[in-house]
């Protein structure tokens, strides 16, 4: 079995490479930041238009009370999933190759959640009153409705956002200390505050390990519960095609599917932008591909379960909605989603595809497009073909909705790009641990490997 | 309600609102019955509703997009091959009355309303007299209630439609009913402003609202008096008699193995157990007499 990472990388080189990424990225980076900022600005203006005139300008109508905005919401919550799950699950199972990937995956989680959180708010009829959904004390003694799945949703998303931000930051403290030791000027002050007085003493490392593992154990069930709760928005409703028992696992599998594809996309992007070829290596990408394939198969299976439930359940409304999906006006998209979503992952079985960066980039992006369509296909056909034949009606995404959808993609990318610029996007101390464990004991180059990579010591080695 | 009490009275808790049900001793339980055999589908009820409840007129283009705000609407249905524009004539005319069948559809004021539990801010709630209240001031416009409504009778203000009113048209607005702005869900209230006024008058005179004392706008406007409205908690009210005559037994319409009932009463989507407060009396076909 080939090694995931070269064994002879000097620790000083790791520090130098990662810290350089926080200072001088390729020019592509700035081009992407500029492009994303433009798109976000465009979407912002589109949104102010909708804010002033009402949601009608987004093309919403009866019976399509929810549209692409909600599809975006489910999609971005989905993307957020893989980061934490991958990081926490692989940490608990002590998987070595997790170490170079997890920081960017967790950053993806937090950025995607910050994107997802926008949508339930900006799709509200009266945005300015969104805080009424919080259980805050007020003189009228009014509470939100605790029976509403939307409230569970809000609770779950906020809990998840807080915990994943904490997890991300917590795991970053030793790396921030490395940068603190090197930075000058205002950055020194900033990173001194952020690194919370980390010195790398044995006691600190001990507490750090325990805390990190505890957080990971807490996050693992939380991540699974979050998308289950999001699925409750639909499963708790009585509409045919939504009121499905298998929705929570179906949503979680779909979330992991798009999340894994997202990790692959960002993996290739980071590798290019910051010249991380030594750390984000092809063997690691290979393993990510296998995980994506496995999750895609779970997702495919749950799709079939959903059809089987509708078919054997014999409920007329359920059957009609399924029939509507397969033959109605949305059928081309639905079939593209089903065939593409189930079929495309099989390409990952080919070694040539798994080792081809361009192919993987395209494949992972197409997979995410498919997963977006999947979310849209949960919404649109059911709403079109509801119980009341008089209320049937079709709706396609409007221009405004598409602008805001792409604006959200840009917003996510922008957040991620800003993150990787001001924080180390690779975990320096974890890569050193990885090298240390890989390193042959008889290797002469390493005389006395320290018991633990200590930030200060590691940095001392980096000094010219 | 304490837990023990809830467990003991579980059946009553689940199945509220039988006519004259002793389990619920509320003074009022508003209900309606609509006789489809008398209804001519003229649309007077719709017009009356527009006038009474300050419903905005959206215009042709928005109507076609599905943005009409008709709390009361006449739904038209055609039989197989009878749709307007179909060339093919129906094989054998089963019903002498050809063409559209119609049903006036309004909020069914369900006793187990699917719209109520899903509202994140409790803007959709249940009033003690059996109405689905909708608090405009509390509504934040998540639109979940409309998704979950099987009857699709909840209407959302996608625009500030009242701004289209040109002077002096605002003079004809009903001062008893608020004008809704964009971002708020609205629906039929059984003319709650009239109910409230009648209840207040009755309260001042230390009595209950008499049967026939309060009429909804649609009922008032119906030229054939197909709509009967009143208090179901009152055994002698016209609507309670109408429900009894139709042998409407709540929650038990379809029994397996029981031959089709000869009564005309039915509630829309009874199988969903929403317990609507509106009973429809089926149209009497010539071939069933």
Low-confidence stretches of chain B: 19-23, 250-259
* Beta-strand content of chain B: 5-15%
Strand arrangement, major sheet of chain B:
8-1-10-9
Helix content of chain B: 10-25%
Oligomer: heterodimer
Count of distinct strands of chain A:
0
End-to-end span of chain A in angstroms? 36 Å
End-to-end distance of chain B: 50 Å
C-alpha Rg of chain B (nearest Å): 20 Å
Q: Class of chain B in CATH?
A: Alpha Beta
Structural domain count of chain B: 1
- What's the mean pLDDT score of chain B? 82
Structural class of chain A: mainly alpha
Strand content of chain A: under 5%
CATH topology of chain B: Alpha-Beta Plaits
The main pleated sheet of chain B reads as: 4 strands, mixed
Determine the number of helices of chain B (DSSP H or I, runs of at least 4 residues). Answer: 9
Defining key terms:
heterodimer, A: 17 helices, 69% helix, globular, B: 289 residues, alpha+beta, Alpha-Beta Plaits, four-stranded mixed β-sheet, 10 strands
Description:
The complex is a heterodimer of chains A (464) and B (289). With 464 residues, chain A is mainly α. Chain A has one domain (11-136, 162-457). Chain A contains 17 helices and no strands. In chain A, helix 8 crosses helix 9. The radius of gyration of chain A is 24 Å and the shape is globular. Residues 441-447 and 457-464 of chain A have low confidence and may be disordered. Chain B has a single domain, classed as Alpha-Beta Plaits (2-Layer Sandwich), CATH 3.30.70.20. Residues 19-23 and 250-259 of chain B have low confidence and may be disordered. Chain B is built from 9 helices and 10 strands. Chain B is α+β, with helices and mostly antiparallel strands and 289 residues long. In chain B, strands 8-1-10-9 form a 4-stranded mixed β-sheet, covered by helices on one side. In chain B, strands 2-3 form a two-stranded antiparallel ribbon. Chain A binds chain B through residues 53-57, 60-63, 65-66, 120, 123-127, 129-130, 132-133, 142-145, 147-151, 154, 233, 236-239, 383, 386-391, 393, and chain B through 62, 65-67, 73, 75, 77, 105, 114, 117-122, 138-144, 146-148, 150-152, 155-160, 182-185, 269, 272.
